[in-house]
């Protein structure tokens, strides 16, 4: 008999959340598309559901803002999708009528659409695109490692395109030394780069056969991939242009065949920068004139490849890869300069069993020179200049004394610590020290693993060094017997100073804490005035044994007066803190147990 | 001659062997062809043999039929022998293999004659050469030595030569073997029958075994070769494409020579379609090209009029535990991993750290694709809200309280303990002068919960049962203590549990009211000077057992008795009296009994003019909507508060009417106390909450404090200091600062000051009662551990 729940008198317009938000099925109806098309549109346009303050239709619906839906409605792509659907029908009809020729013809001429406008619309500035690049990169790298799946419509062409795009990105990062952190996890290898002030983190899977499960809807992923591929292509283009390299890079087909794309790209860079130094004309010309551009491109390819011939013959020529960017040194920030110097003057050689692509990328990014076992390598294993050989096998039988044989983890740890770590722990056949995540702020978490502590000490020591002596300096930190005078003394002093500083800090902190306590009116603080009454001393005597109790009491008492909302919030925070504390305690306990079990 | 013929025979044998060895190299076609040739050769040989016997040669007949008949005649008798000899010859051949070398030489000699010819039409290969060599006796391939030509040999019948050799010399006729010789030869040599005299070339040719077989087959009328199948299935090589006959002999029609009209029409149609644009040509697929999309950042500032984009939160960055080689402490033990199975699905850790000792051991991550997919789903399915991350210091949430030092004095420490009771002290009361306290204790061994139904609603109360009912030995006591020294002044033994003890608020009347079971005892404490004692004694005399002016039902509710044992008055009720409260003037007394209708008594002691104690019973028959728990008089006005389990009801005593209801929102009220000014009220509840009511403000609590985790047993206001306290079963008592300002606009200030501890829990009960000293900031607490404590500042 009563009014319906959301009664609106006739003639009155909808207002508030009911007017502003629609559920998904309403939206689909409004746009007159099918759900898959709607999903595709949403993904491409970057439309996401929003959370209305009041859910008019109920709690179990997803709500879209009406403005978002209107935005979709005016999207030309919507019409394109409708046309595509009609076109599909044509093909289907032709097939049903056994008109194979027409079906084939139609199939070939299937209309295509472009997403560049959408990218511009979603990311009006380049920085915006960079900000959203994390997921894009992770996905493209994942698909680069996937096999082409016929039944899931993952085409070979797309996989190759993903590979190409990911290589281009890696090449740019390593070329400009933007890489900051590397972390080898069970899930894959995490990289973090800093481009135009944006921290971009992405994950590349381990280079193995990926596991595919049945419960994955590849349609969704492929739609995302479609957008991500386009986005990354444009981002790459922009980045390449920013360092004066022509964008679609033309690679040495020989190297490409050897799956050394990354190396080929780095050579393209080298050649490109040189070419642009020689004459900056072609880039401007090709931009203006399309027809002439292709011709120019061909000639340039030849030129580039001719230039490639030269350095590949002479062994030391690879160094120019690293040194070439000297021109824009001034633009670089402190961090980049530091990164660039890390592996300077070092020559690495990668063994067969080591993940070549990732190490090639990392070492280049930090200014080292690398070669690998196999064809097309810049120099071979017997080269005298090699300082480190990256090896991941139980034993190394044939050794050359002038170089050190280390495990790949050493590279990552060096990169994260930004110093050359002593290689002792990483030698062939040993279990390397634990690999720590560079993304964790140990102090904030409250638990510092042992090895982090060691690295910290080494870093402090390295900073204090007046003379950088690369090979020797790090080793004598480990064994103080080989006293190389100044470095050690310096370090000792530094340690002392650090300790002193720490002591002062703790004292200061204590003082502050006491002050705070006093403000709160806790009676036991030591700095209370001299007019302490007899009673109060009594209080203190009694209460001192269980100061903890008193602290708890004060906490309790202030909680009593809080409003319920605040109290709940406070309690929630406390619970969160407690959980963290528990985790840390668990870690400590495990550590203790491990130590005990090791001793016995 | 015979030896020469024999050597020739071995020669051919040898050749045959050689041929067999090489036959694998010769292709099939040649072989068959050769065999056919051989068959012809043997036929010719047979022809040659024919003139050998002299009688036949004598006869002039040359027709084939004649010698055919002869041949059969000749061989008819020896046919069976022939077969035997065939078998023999096999062994003979194998023997003759030994003389292979010689044979070769001979063969080459023979060959020298016909080498010119053989080289002409045969291939240069040695195989071909051998072939030539082998078929030396044939006329087709080897040039005949006799150059006489194709003339009948009859012409030479009478000559002693038979033609000429290549050099032009006459070839001499051989001497004829006579019959005896031939017979001997046939007797000597079993192979003789295979020897045929070649009259033309004047030599003796020996047929090979195979040739003999060929001859046999031909004689039988079969195909000369055994492997030739005359009845092989027919293979039709011709394609009969709708043709009746393999070939047509019809003349080519004209239409084949002129261009097609219909094709022309089609071409015209296509041409027209192309010209008009009906047919579009396939354009080369255009690869999507990247260009400088963000070429000029200047126009990037254009304002879009759609909603703000909320970027998706970035995926969580990995911690130490996700490393392929984490520190040992990050790896859970096996027991911990097993215990994860007991957790709820959503609590279970999604990722269990693992450790690999080297990078090469790390396998592909099994959830890589799945996690990526889930991320995709999150991105497009999860509603996004911009939420402000609460990153506040929890300390900042705590309200700024005035310093506790400024709020002194308040009780902080236990100063005295009053020992003497043997069981839980249920109630404590301070004499208005502040010199004495009275306490009521009960000796309880056990505690029972029982429920009883009354009327329509079920009331769940805790009934404390006196051990008397069970043991009859122990009894409850009421004691009076001197505050300053802790000396127990007096003890009354009332045989039942004492629930409530209250001093008369009038200083001149040291009277104590005690609720004991269904009774309320009014006792003379025996304090004060002589004059006062006199008055008290007079007061506590019951003259008439029941009041005359009241109706009958009141008499049934309560009855007056003189209690001789303790020297006081005993008021007997029909139910357990739970609390007793004096009016501020000391004339009235309120007793609360659990009943759903309030029977509200006022016991009036009119003591002014007449020394006779007069009982005035008035009854408020109002529905309380719940059991009354406790009651209290307004300190200044004639207002009465009564707390039911949920609400506090306020009555005007003079007009005897209901004023208002205070909604506490609590589940079960346990105690109530009024601020000495009378406008504020605190209510303690069994759920540990304390409500502060500002009567002027509203009927809702001004502030609810959740301070105790357990039941609040009692609350108390200080009479002069701005203090109030609550005590609870968790063995603590809270002391609060509760300042009420005279300015109505300013809300009362409530500050928790101290948590008083010291009592011990017994039977799940903690502090049973708390009372403030009337003048000093001291707090008395009565604990279930049979102690009374005095907390001083």
Please give the structural blueprint.
The complex is a heterodimer of chains A (600) and B (793).
Chain A: H1 16-20, E1 21-23, H2 24-31, H3 35-45, E2 63-65, H4 66-73, H5 76-96, H6 100-108, H7 116-122, H8 126-131, H9 133-145, H10 156-176, E3 179-184, E4 189-195, E5 198-204, H11 218-242, H12 253-257, H13 261-278, H14 281-288, H15 290-313, H16 320-323, H17 334-341, E6 347-350, H18 356-365, E7 369-372, E8 388-390, E9 404-406, H19 408-417, H20 442-445, H21 450-464, H22 470-478, H23 485-520, H24 534-543, H25 547-561, H26 564-599
Parallel strand pairs in A: 6-7, 6-8, 8-9
Antiparallel strand pairs in A: 1-2, 3-4, 4-5
Helix pairs in contact in A: 3-11, 5-6, 9-10, 9-11, 10-11, 10-13, 10-18, 14-15
Chain B: H1 2-22, H2 28-49, H3 54-58, H4 64-76, H5 79-96, H6 100-121, H7 126-134, E1 161-164, E2 170-172, H8 179-188, E3 195-198, E4 203-206, H9 209-220, H10 261-276, H11 334-340, H12 368-381, H13 394-397, E5 413-418, E6 425-430, E7 436-441, E8 448-454, E9 457-463, E10 476-482, E11 488-494, E12 498-503, E13 511-516, E14 519-524, H14 530-539, H15 552-557, E15 558-563, E16 568-573, E17 579-582, E18 589-592, E19 628-633, E20 639-644, E21 647-652, E22 657-663, E23 669-674, E24 680-685, E25 689-694, E26 703-706, E27 712-717, E28 723-728, E29 733-739, E30 749-756, E31 767-772, E32 779-783, E33 788-792
Antiparallel strand pairs in B: 1-2, 3-4, 5-33, 6-7, 7-10, 8-9, 10-11, 12-13, 13-14, 14-16, 15-16, 17-18, 19-20, 20-21, 21-22, 23-24, 24-25, 25-26, 27-28, 28-29, 29-30, 31-32, 32-33
Helix pairs in contact in B: 1-6, 1-7, 2-9, 6-7
Describe this structure in words.
The complex is a heterodimer of chains A (600) and B (793). By secondary structure, chain A is α/β, with parallel strands linked by helices. Chain A has four domains: 16-74, Orthogonal Bundle (Multidrug-efflux Transporter Regulator, Chain: A, Domain 2); 116-323, no CATH class; 334-480, BRCT domain (Rossmann fold, 3-Layer(aba) Sandwich); 562-600. Chain A has helices at 16-20, 24-31, 35-45, 66-73, 76-96, 100-108, 116-122, 126-131, 133-145, 156-176, 218-242, 253-257, 261-278, 281-288, 290-313, 320-323, 334-341, 356-365, 408-417, 442-445, 450-464, 470-478, 485-520, 534-543, 547-561, 564-599; strands spanning 21-23, 63-65, 179-184, 189-195, 198-204, 347-350, 369-372, 388-390, 404-406. In chain A, helix 18 links the parallel strand 6 and strand 7 (369-372). The model of chain A is unreliable at 275-298, 305-329, 466-490 and 521-545 (pLDDT under 50). Chain B is an alpha+beta fold and 793 residues long. In chain B, 24% of the residues lie in helices and 24% in strands. Chain B contains 15 helices and 33 strands. A five-stranded antiparallel β-sheet of chain B has the order 12-13-14-16-15. The longest helix of chain B has 22 residues, at 28-49. Chain B starts with a helix and ends with a strand. At the A-B interface, helix 3, helix 4, helix 7, helix 8 and helix 9 of A face helix 12 and strand 30 of B.
């Amino acid at each position: 008999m009563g009014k319906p729940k959301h009664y609106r008198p006739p003639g009155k317009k909808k207002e508030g959340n009911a007017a502003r938000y629609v559920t998904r099925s309403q939206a689909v109806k409004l746009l007159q598309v099918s759900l898959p098309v709607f999903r595709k549109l949403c993904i491409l346009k970057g439309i996401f559901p929003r959370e209305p303050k009041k859910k008019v239709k109920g709690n179990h619906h997803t709500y879209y803002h009406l403005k978002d839906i209107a935005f979709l409605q005016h999207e030309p792509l919507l019409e394109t999708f409708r046309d595509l659907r009609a076109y599909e029908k044509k093909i289907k009809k032709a097939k049903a009528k056994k008109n194979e020729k027409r079906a084939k013809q139609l199939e070939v001429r299937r209309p295509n659409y472009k997403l560049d406008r959408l990218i511009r619309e979603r990311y009006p500035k380049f920085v915006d695109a960079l900000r959203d690049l994390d997921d894009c990169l992770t996905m493209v790298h994942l698909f680069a490692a996937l096999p082409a799946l016929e039944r899931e419509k993952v085409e070979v062409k797309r996989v190759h395109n993903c590979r190409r795009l990911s290589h281009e990105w890696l090449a740019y990062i390593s070329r400009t030394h933007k890489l900051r952190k590397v972390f080898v996890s069970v899930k894959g290898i995490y990289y973090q780069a800093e481009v135009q002030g944006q921290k971009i983190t992405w994950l590349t899977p381990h280079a193995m056969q990926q596991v595919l499960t049945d419960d994955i809807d590849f349609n969704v992923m492929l739609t995302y991939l479609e957008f991500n591929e386009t986005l990354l292509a444009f981002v790459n283009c922009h980045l390449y242009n920013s360092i004066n390299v022509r964008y679609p890079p033309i690679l040495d087909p020989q190297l490409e065949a050897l799956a050394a794309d990354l190396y080929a790209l780095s050579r393209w860079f080298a050649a490109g920068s040189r070419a642009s130094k020689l004459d900056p004309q072609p880039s401007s010309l090709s931009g203006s004139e399309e027809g002439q551009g292709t011709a120019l491109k061909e000639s340039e390819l030849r030129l580039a490849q001719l230039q490639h011939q030269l350095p590949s013959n002479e062994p030391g020529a690879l160094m120019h890869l690293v040194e070439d960017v000297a021109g824009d040194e001034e633009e670089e920030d402190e961090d980049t300069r530091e990164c660039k110097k890390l592996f300077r003057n070092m020559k690495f050689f990668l063994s067969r069993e080591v993940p070549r692509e990732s190490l090639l990328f990392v070492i280049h990014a930090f200014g080292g020179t690398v070669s690998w076992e196999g064809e097309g390598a810049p120099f071979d294993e017997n080269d005298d200049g090699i300082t480190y050989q990256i090896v991941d096998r139980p034993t190394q039988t044939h050794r050359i004394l002038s170089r050190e044989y280390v495990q790949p983890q050493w590279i990552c740890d060096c990169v994260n610590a930004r110093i050359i770590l002593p290689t002792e722990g990483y030698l062939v056949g040993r279990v390397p020290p634990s690999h720590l995540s560079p993304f964790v702020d140990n102090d904030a978490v409250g638990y510092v693993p042992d090895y982090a502590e060691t690295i910290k000490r080494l870093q402090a020591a390295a900073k204090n060094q007046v003379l950088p002596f690369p090979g020797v300096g790090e080793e004598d930190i480990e064994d103080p017997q080989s006293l190389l005078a100044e470095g050690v003394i310096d370090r000792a002093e530094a340690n002392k100073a650090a300790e002193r500083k720490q002591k002062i800090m703790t004292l200061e902190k204590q003082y502050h804490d006491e002050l705070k306590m006093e403000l709160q009116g806790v009676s036991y603080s030591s700095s209370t005035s001299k007019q302490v009454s007899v009673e109060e001393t009594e209080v203190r005597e009694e209460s001192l044994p269980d100061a903890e109790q008193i602290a708890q009491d004060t906490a309790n008492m202030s909680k009593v007066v809080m409003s319920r909302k605040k109290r709940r919030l406070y309690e929630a925070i406390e619970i969160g803190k407690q959980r963290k504390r528990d985790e840390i305690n668990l870690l400590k306990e495990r550590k203790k147990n491990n130590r005990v079990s090791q001793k016995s | 001659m015979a030896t020469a013929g024999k050597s020739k025979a071995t020669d051919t044998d040898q050749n045959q062997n050689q041929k067999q060895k090489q036959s694998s190299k010769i292709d099939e076609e040649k072989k068959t062809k050769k065999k056919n040739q051989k068959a012809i050769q043997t036929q010719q040989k047979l022809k040659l043999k024919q003139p050998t016997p002299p009688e036949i040669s004598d006869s002039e007949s040359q027709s084939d039929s004649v010698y055919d008949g002869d041949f059969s005649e000749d061989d008819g008798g020896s046919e069976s022998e022939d077969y035997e000899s065939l078998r023999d010859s096999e062994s003979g051949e194998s023997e003759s293999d030994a003389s292979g070398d010689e044979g070769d030489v001979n063969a080459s000699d023979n060959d020298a004659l016909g080498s010119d010819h053989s080289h002409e039409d045969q291939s240069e290969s040695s195989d071909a050469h051998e072939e030539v060599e082998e078929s030396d006796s044939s006329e087709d391939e080897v040039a005949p030595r006799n150059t006489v030509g194709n003339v009948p040999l009859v012409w030479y019948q009478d000559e002693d030569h038979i033609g000429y050799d290549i050099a032009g010399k006459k070839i001499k006729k051989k001497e004829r073997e006579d019959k005896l010789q031939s017979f001997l030869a046939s007797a000597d040599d079993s192979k003789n029958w295979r020897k045929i005299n070649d009259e033309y070339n004047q030599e003796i040719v020996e047929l090979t075994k195979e040739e003999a077989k060929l001859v046999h087959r031909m004689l039988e009328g079969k195909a000369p070769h055994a492997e030739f199948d005359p009845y092989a299935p027919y293979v039709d090589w011709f394609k009969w494409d709708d043709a009746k006959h393999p070939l047509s002999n019809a003349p080519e029609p004209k239409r084949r020579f002129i261009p097609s009209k219909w094709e022309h029409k089609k071409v015209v149609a296509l041409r027209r379609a192309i010209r008009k644009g009906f047919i579009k040509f396939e354009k080369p697929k255009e690869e999507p090209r990247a260009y400088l999309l963000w070429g000029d950042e200047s126009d990037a500032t254009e304002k879009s009029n759609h909603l703000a984009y909320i970027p998706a939160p970035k995926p969580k960055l990995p911690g130490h535990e996700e490393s392929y080689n984490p520190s040992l402490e990050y790896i859970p033990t096996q027991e911990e991993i097993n215990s994860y199975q007991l957790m709820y699905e959503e609590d279970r850790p999604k990722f269990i750290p693992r450790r690999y000792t080297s990078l090469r051991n790390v396998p592909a991550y099994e959830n890589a694709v799945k996690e990526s997919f889930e991320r995709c789903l999150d991105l497009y399915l999860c509603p996004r809200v911009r939420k402000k991350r609460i990153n506040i210091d929890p300390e900042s949430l705590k309200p700024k309280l005035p310093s506790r030092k400024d709020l002194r004095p308040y009780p902080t420490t236990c100063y005295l303990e009053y020992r003497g009771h043997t069981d839980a002290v249920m109630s404590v009361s301070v004499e208005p002068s502040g010199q004495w306290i009275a306490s009521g204790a009960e000796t309880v061994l056990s505690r029972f919960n029982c429920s009883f139904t009354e009327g329509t609603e079920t009331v769940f109360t805790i009934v404390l049962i006196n051990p008397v009912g069970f043991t009859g030995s122990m009894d409850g006591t009421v004691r009076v203590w001197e505050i300053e020294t802790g000396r127990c002044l007096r003890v009354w033994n009332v045989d039942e549990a004492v629930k409530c003890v209250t001093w008369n608020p009038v200083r001149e009347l040291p009277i104590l009211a005690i609720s004991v079971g269904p009774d309320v005892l009014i006792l003379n404490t025996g304090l004060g000077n002589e004059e006062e004692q006199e008055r008290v004694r007079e007061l506590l005399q019951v003259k008439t057992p029941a009041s005359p002016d009241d109706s009958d039902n009141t008499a049934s509710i309560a009855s007056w008795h003189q209690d001789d044992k303790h020297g006081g008055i005993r008021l007997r009720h029909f139910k357990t009296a739970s609390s007793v409260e004096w009016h501020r003037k000391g004339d009235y007394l309120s007793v609360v009994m659990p009943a759903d209708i309030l029977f509200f008594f006022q016991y009036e002691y009119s003591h002014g003019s007449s020394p006779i104690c007069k009982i005035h019973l008035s009854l408020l028959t109002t529905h309380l909507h719940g059991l009354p728990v406790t009651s209290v008089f307004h300190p200044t006005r004639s207002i009465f508060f009564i707390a039911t389990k949920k609400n506090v009801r306020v009555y005007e005593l003079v007009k005897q009417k209901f004023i208002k209801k205070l909604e506490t929102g609590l589940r079960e009220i346990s105690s109530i106390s009024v601020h000495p000014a009378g406008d504020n009220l605190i209510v303690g509840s069994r759920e540990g909450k304390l409500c502060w009511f500002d009567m002027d403000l509203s009927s809702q609590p001004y502030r609810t404090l959740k301070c105790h985790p357990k039941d609040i047993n009692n609350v108390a206001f200080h009479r002069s200091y701005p203090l109030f306290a609550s005590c609870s079963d968790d063995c603590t008592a809270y002391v609060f600062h509760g300042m009420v300002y005279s300015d109505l606009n300013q809300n009362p200030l409530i500050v928790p000051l101290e948590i008083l501890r010291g009592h011990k829990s017994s039977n799940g009960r903690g502090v049973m009662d708390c009372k403030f000293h009337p003048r000093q900031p001291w707090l008395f607490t009565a604990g279930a551990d049979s102690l009374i404590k005095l907390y001083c500042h």
